[in-house]
Amino acid sequence: MPKQKTHSGAKKRFKVTGSGKLMKQQANLRHNFEGKPSRRTRRLSQDQVLAKGDAKVAKKLLGL
């Protein structure tokens, strides 16, 4: 049987921590920064742990 391929979209979007959790980048950090406070943009630039239900699907796509 052939090997399972990693989903290319998923491997670009998620990274796995040492403990096995999946991290993702937060939304709303692409444009319109003049209207957003600096405090908010700093908060959004931090990675966030993927929700449990989403992590289950993403792990399948990553082949974990």
From TrEMBL:
The keyword Ribosomal protein applies. Keywords: Ribonucleoprotein, Ribosomal protein. The keyword Transmembrane does not apply. One of its GO terms (cellular component) is ribosome. PANTHER family: 54S RIBOSOMAL PROTEIN BL35M (PTHR33343), LARGE RIBOSOMAL SUBUNIT PROTEIN BL35M (PTHR33343:SF1). Belongs to the bacterial ribosomal protein bL35 family. This is Large ribosomal subunit protein bL35. It comes from Microbacterium yannicii. The gene is rpmI.
